[in-house]
User: Fold this.
Amino acid sequence: MSSALVGIAPVDRKETLGVLVREKLRSALMAGRFQPGEKLTIRAVASALDVSLTPAREALYNLVAEGILDSGPNGTVFVPQMDEERIVELSKIRITLEGLAAREAVPNLTDADIAAIAAIHAELAEADHTKDFPALMQLNWQFHFGIYDAANMPTLKRIIESCWLKMGSYINVIYPKYGEIGQGIELHGRVLEALARRDADALCAAIRADIEQSTSCLIAMSRG
Amino acid sequence: MSSALVGIAPVDRKETLGVLVREKLRSALMAGRFQPGEKLTIRAVASALDVSLTPAREALYNLVAEGILDSGPNGTVFVPQMDEERIVELSKIRITLEGLAAREAVPNLTDADIAAIAAIHAELAEADHTKDFPALMQLNWQFHFGIYDAANMPTLKRIIESCWLKMGSYINVIYPKYGEIGQGIELHGRVLEALARRDADALCAAIRADIEQSTSCLIAMSRG
DNA sequence: CCAGATTATCTGTTATAACGAATATTGTTG
DNA sequence: CAACAATATTCGTTATAACAGATAATCTGG
Assistant:
């Protein structure tokens, strides 16, 4: 084999229909296009995405296995209802897990990494001004996972992503109002500060504050 | 409806073939009946359990979605190889998550709960003497999850179970030798002690020590 | 006897059909 | 008009067949 061809391997990666559907559902979930409690039938998903029952079923049940969708009595699948207990529990899990990721990331973060994260923060502030909520959510994702990526812990990252999706299905329903409070940006400032000082404890505290704030906002909304 | 019939609802809970197969694979994994790296074909699973491809595929891919099995290039599914990085990462995740569960459990644990856990510990010591490794593993599971259950955090519990399964596929390959070291029992003693004093910090420390010990044992085995 | 090409087999993917259970609809009756 | 029964429809489950790509086996030519 020519050495020039080394490392360009992934030529043939046509995704399976099942994962395609799953990813579609994932982003639809993150975009808040489903209402909490909404029932998702296999046939509806299949015909909406113009595939047969098989990949639709696979996608739906994979999300159930991940805990992102809930499964009801007779094999019915629906997007989880948002109740306070669940929100609080997920918040605690996220604080623990994202704290770990941040802590492990600190020694690995290069100056370039931090600069990139700061750049995302700048974009984020811009999107905050223009009230571009879809961009805001995506940039927020990039901001946080830009840090967690540096931990080099793929399994941990997957679990955290899963937690985000579990909250994400209704965090979006609420985001406009959450955005108007506008404290998220300030907390991100604290994150950047801790990052610059490579202060793991401060970083954890800042991330915890960020999670707790969005959680309390979510709880307030769930009450009425 | 007669009031005498209230609460006896779950009459009809015939599981689906898919979850049946998945559970079969789960316990086979926990029992260490598969070798790390072994390839699991859909048709092999299907014919072994005498079902069609559909439920076999569903079970396999649900386990992949949970991160318990790995998926290769062409949709192939295999049991994850044990490498040191993965072991260390899972160990860190477990320490964090099980620490959280233990901490949350402490205020909820009744005296009866603690007595039950102590009873399991007694059985565990018995199984340790008689070198009954299958029983030992099951009792170890009951011991730990007897604590975590009290946290009343279903999502957290599921994630921890998932982590156990991810390690479990090869922790069992090693258990006999691990059992001969016989320190696990002493560490469980520390857990019980902390439990009796309702000392959350000590409990976390004891659980951490337990995890770290089995991890270091696992690492030692993976090297030679 | 070995290398390369061809064939056969294996494996994952996907659509479809058939079955049964659950739900919704309609029709009927008091 | 209301309540019950019968029917129709929807839905999840599962097996099967057909297809394509990958792998293994066989065969042929040197």
In short: The mean pLDDT of chain B is 88. The longest strand of chain B covers residues 39-40. The interface with chain A takes residues 16, 18, 54, 57-58, 61-63, 65-67, 75, 86, 89-90, 92-93, 96-97, 99-100, 104, 153-156, 158-159, 166 of chain B (CB under 8 Å). Chain B is about 70% helix and 5% strand.
